[in-house]
Fold each of these.
Amino acid sequence: MNAFVKEKIQKDFQERMDRDELENCMRCGFCLPACPTYIQSGYDETQSPRGRIALMKGIVDGEIEPDEDIEQTLNECLGCRACEPACPAGVNYGHLLEEARDIFNQNKKHSLPERVIRKTVFDGLFPHQSRMQNMTSLLGMYQRSGLQKVTRKIGFMKLFPETMATMERVLPDVQTRKEMRERPTYYENEKAPKATVAFFKGCLMDTMFMDINQMTIDLLQKVGCDIAVPDTQNCCGALHGHSGEKEKAKELAKENIKAFEKVSADFIITNAGGCGAFLYDYDHLLKEDSEWAERAKNFTAKIKDITAILVELDFHNTPLQLPEQVVTYQDSCHLRNVQKTFEEPRTLMRSIEGVQYEEMNQADRCCGSAGIYNIVHSELSMKHLDYKMEQVKDTAATTIVTTNPGCLLQMKLGIEREGLSDKMRAIHIVELLSEAVNYSEEKAGAYMATHEKVRYSI
Ligand code: SF4
Ligand code: SF4
């Protein structure tokens, strides 16, 4: 980083960072025990929220020169925002981090391969759902054609870093492109609806985890909702916002606000904690845009996680059953720390007969997935995951439930790394609830059939 770049970063910090927010930090350290990177680093202050805020403030005040070490410290933050609920001063660390990372990124001279990858991912892929469908359907073809079996047999994946090779083994079975494309945009309830909701489908959730999206819609129908799925919605922009591509994130936010304004819904439902939290932050993202600030506020006010709407509409009082099993829950950091939704998933799991719910120690501590953290900081991420798996094993759970696609893949990865895939599984909460609905209906059907047989034989 040369002197000119350092000077430019300093200037951008002085112009763009929220000084009030920085000054709100009174350096009390209450956030330290909540921070996984601080603990994992052996209590290194620069790996803590307080330390990172001090570095940001030091740059703004001209007391510290920005350099690669500070950039790395900021990049090694998981962005889990566990420091926020712990902070008595209400410092919004997530917003500070996002802005600081964006400044570093905007002033960075990326190498040519980096520029190509960033352009492909941020501009060419995620904001185009049809391209996401094409790409994931290639994965589906790879899985169905037998190529996957061949590559595994000949050990081809050993040529890749260990985490990537393990990740390949835990990817879900992907549907065909035709199945991804041919879906309704409105689901009407037969009875008068209890609520009209709009469903935010997400880019990964609607391709790689499409079946979970369908189960979400089925549950919403079951609980009495009419559901609109606006077809002009796009990626939420979280990946962009957290990777120093704030302008692109704003464009995507505007597209989504426009798409959801076209349907008149009581709530906008998400089933991915990470996406939901970013949608929930649109009002902050667009607060300085006079045309969009109010529209963003209205949009944000409607965001609700699937677990929250299900509890609100009394789903947890539906008598449901599952074969006996021990279940534990890994909080999605963003669902918990930003959307403040953590009781509802637990209420839903505990309501199922046959489920023995065991709270894991530090369920609210990040699993190390953190967007693309497990790819770009693989080694650090695996340390967080190994710690998490120790807590999981202590519960003796056979089912780990999550509420976010990144956490779901990370927990599957953890199970695979521990060699526990024949004893343990990781699923999304929507999958657990759908299993309970199907199992209970089948049991009721079997009971009715026996009952009918008895009645007719009398
Ligand atoms: S966001 Fe998470 S990792 Fe980053 S400083 Fe806060 S608690 Fe620590
Ligand atoms: S808890 Fe809040 S005020 Fe205290 S050091 Fe952490 S961020 Fe600063």
Amino acid sequence: MDGELPGPVTALFPDAQLIERVEDWLTRELAAASARAARGPVMPTLDRAQLQRELAAFDFESPRSLEPLLAWTIAQLEHGVVHLNNPRYFGLFNPAPNFPAQCADRIAGAFNPQLASSGSSPAPVAIEAHVIGAIAQRAGLPSGAGGHFTTSGSEANCTALICALTRADPRFGTLGVRAFNGPVAFYSSHECQPAWFKIAHQCGVGRAALRLIDVDAQGRMDADALAETLRRDRREGIVPVLISATAGTTGAGMIDPLRRCAAIAHEHGVWYHVDAAWGGAALCSQRLRGLLAGIELADSITIDAHKWFATTMGCGMFITPHRTVLSEAFRVSADFMPSTLESVDPYLNSVQWSRRFMGLRLFLSLAAAGWDGYGAHVERALAVIERARERLVGRGWSAVNDSQLAVLCVLPPPGFPPPREIVRRLLADGRAWAAVTTFAGREVVRICVTHGQSALADVEALVEGLNAAGGPGG
Ligand SMILES: Cc1ncc(COP(=O)(O)O)c(C=O)c1O
């Protein structure tokens, strides 16, 4: 007892000695489990029925001691996830997390700063704003551009639509879509990330508001079709509010014609957004940043640090030169908040209220690697994907996309089963991970380099795995 008060609950707030012991143990255990995961099968090996039985025993009636609980949890993750930190995961855009970002999570977890306002977290808010400013500058946006960290690319894209609606009619904030004289529409290509449908739903414009524009044979938005669709919609009384070009499509890593899309948006007075959730990291490379020419014309940009920047999960960015639109869209008054700086406080400029110190992950990674370090990371992925392309083409596969980024879509040689079956067998075998997707109307095997340490032996394992999965007895 502490005077008249009951003592703290030691299971939640143990003494410093125990914390130190458990943290040391955790550090070693995590390193060992990660090393095993990097060498072992990419796919989960968990017995799900057993997990359900063990979960059922957690009735939370009698407390358990922490150390066995941590050991149990690490075992569930070691056996119960697709291992992004396995260098044979040639996967979706999910990376092996870099080390500075993991350190950032530990620091943020220890201090648990509340980033809603600069009043409660002056240092973290300033650090995040500094990183966003640096990325905006790297993208070539006008000076003074800003924005904020988001939990995801989807949240950043959603923010773009909210800003577009807010700018299109200042009455939107009060009246919602009733502010407009006709149905609202926004535009992206058939290859856009499908979360845009959920965003349309969330924003109240309805899923039908998303106009999917045709793509060319390489999966890039057809700018002529875009222009024609906008003209036709306008004639029919529809109100276009936003064009979203994708810089690094999810399926095939293609880049829409950014400058032409910008010109069309400008001509029609609609918000121009570039979804560079994955491809945005190419800005770090002197050799590759030119591929994103036109991004500097954007009214807003989405970039996910938890994709090609390889931070831990939940580190998106929304970047815009129109900071006043953000302040308009997310304005609120709350006299209990420790500060009310209109253009600074995250709770006055973004979707979230309470927020984690997400941006520390990119701050530490970028500061540790520098632009050149990240440029080398991105260029390395291209070298690895090029090797995969050579090796597969040499074994009779054909490459069907022409991405200048690190995604390769391939078709198997004649006589092999369809891509979906090959991928199913590959994953069942577990030696490497690739995806199946549809590109240019055909099912393809999709390979993406997402691990910063994938080596030639890993490429070889993938190629062998795909051939074994496609060959007789595969
Ligand atoms: C181009 C693109 N935009 C947006 C997203 C959605 O990002 P998130 O998964 O962070 O919500 C993705 C996800 O892969 C993507 O590829």
Amino acid sequence: MGFQMENKDFNALLQSLKKEYKIYAPKRLEKRGRFSDTDIIGYEEIDEVEEIVYTEKSHYSPKEIVFPITQTLFYFTEEEYKESTVHDKKILIFVRPCDINGMKRLDTIFLQNGPYADVYYERLREKVKFVMMECKESFENCFCVSMNSNYTDNYSIAISFKENKVVCDVKDETFKSLFEKAGEKVDFIPAYVKENHVKVNVPEGEKITIELFNHDLWKDYAKRCIACGRCNTSCITCSCFNTQDIAYEENPESGERRRVWAGCHIDKFTNMAGGHEFRTDYGSRMRFKTMHKIYDYHKRFGEHMCIGCGRCDDRCPEYISFSKCINKVNEILEKEEATNE
Ligand code: SF4
Ligand code: SF4
């Protein structure tokens, strides 16, 4: 059901929703950008629609709302432990279609990858409803169409931002009476990106060969990558973390266990007991990430992990392009196939 209303009426609606919901959206965080005097677009709580940055791609995804950068799992003393708690509000997130599809990948990893769901993820994720921001035009480096993640109908509300007003499609019954009171009924179907400037050809799984794993392609990345991990932290589908036990100074027998984001590009990520370490050269880390995003995950779950948001390309200080990497992999395999025919 479609509704339109002026921004001031939508803001009043947001205020009434805020009694029950924490409301997150991409927001301009001034002077926190990569270079001096630059901003960053990240997810934070908002009070009014004017704070939402919808004309630019966010540098970071909404994953930190359900998978915080640092999260206390439990507190311990010598004799017992106590699980951490979360806030009692529900969560509304303003999010693009690709990121709703990205969240589905996170759900698969945290909730369906093995016999037990991750309770620390689940307890936040089950609170979430999506307000899908209409996304009609592709941004730089996006290749969502190639990855089939440009479209979704998995939302409670869809929204299109116009000058001083918003138009919404409200699918979730719990919100309908609020919107009926605040706006006038209109017809509205959200539009989707149909074409990106960047296109990738993802090779089919059965075409991946052992030769690809030893190809010189990865040596190029070994020279260029600096293992900063920005591609991991900006990626909505990267879900790796380390656990840390923090002992309190006053009483080192008590403390807390936290989990903290980690990433396959970062040094020491593969450190194991006994001093073992794997993928010490940076090229093999690029290979590992690439294969996970476009091969291994697909083999297990039937869809690609990468959603083509292009944030890894946006963020890489060494101008390493993941979309170009996928296309190079495809070209190598096509050449191999032609040679073997
Ligand atoms: S690998 Fe890059 S393009 Fe793919 S989902 Fe992650 S950040 Fe987006
Ligand atoms: S952002 Fe670029 S340089 Fe940094 S780890 Fe990723 S690929 Fe390497």
